[in-house]
Amino acid sequence: MSVSKLASLVLCLVCISAGTLLAQKSKAQLQKEKQENLAKIAEAEKILNETRGKKQNTVGQLNALNQRIKTQEDLISSIKNEMYLLNDEIEETNEIIEALSDDLKNLKKEYAAMVYSAYKANKGVNKLTFLFTAKSFNQFLRRLKYMDQYSEARIKQAEQITKVQNILSDQVTVIQSKVSEKNILLAENLQENKSLERLKQNQNNLVTNLQKQENQIKKDLEQRKDAVAKLDKLINDIIKAEIEKARLAERSAIDASNKLSNEFAENKTKLPWPVSGFISQKFGKQNHPVLRGIVMNNTGINIQTKQNEKVKAIFGGEVRTVAFVPLVGNTVLISHGDYFTVYAGLKDVFVKTGQTVNLGEELGSILTNKDGVSELKFEVRKSAAALDPQQWLVRK
To answer: Is pLDDT above 50 for 247?
Structure first.
């Protein structure tokens, strides 16, 4: 192999290595995603265990189990994506090894041909005889130069063989490591799929048991709807009063309110979650998870969380009211100019009406109901219009 060909080979390996480096970054991202999913699984498992602690076969338990299944599926997906990436890397490395093996074979063939040609040319004549049988001094110099060049070429050819052998050995070590890594992921994927099957079986059993309690669930749902209707009326009345108050306010107060409204709006999709956990009921209309033909309408989102979790303000503002609604718990309403946030389902409240609160300030602790479910009803409103809170909170 010529020096230029070896340079091309090395350049090719550098390009492949660069591609592998990019793949490693993707792998690092996938591994980070896997760790995040494991953390979500731990949180969902804790919430699920808490719902089992007080009462079996509840809608809150089903919501927690659904979330647990979702996090399990996300984990399996991240493991599969890592395996797909690893398969690509193994295939790429095999191509490198195949190319290197071919080049090494050609190098050895060229080297053998060079040695054989030298033997035939010399026919047993040693170097000194070859030099001193020259017919002229110029021919002597040409023969001497030829011998130096030929010797140098053989040395370079031998060096090239050694280099390719070393690179080939390194690539074999790389692929052995990747195959080992893939086997670990395969075993991990198998284990997580078994866990998913068990969870889905539990889900089927729970849904079957809940369907047997249809009358009680309907009764609880109607009571909950009445309580939420009272909460909505309370919130709407307060917001209407605030709007009227703002209409009659002085110019400086209006300017301050507009400034706060703009700041709140600018942070859309960046606002922190008021509490850890998962969304157990989304914004707007959706089917009941158990009762057929029953459609629920939510003016906010419900976030199921752990017992005794602290609820925090998602943005700075002023507490407009602290009120108690049966079956819902304590509610805190905070104004942010034209925007309002509602935190319903608190056990204890740490703030009072008229108080200015900052981003992240604790408003109270979450209430755990008779079914062992700890759930925050959270709303975002602009004037009286209910907005989808998920579009305002940071994605997680």
So the answer is: yes
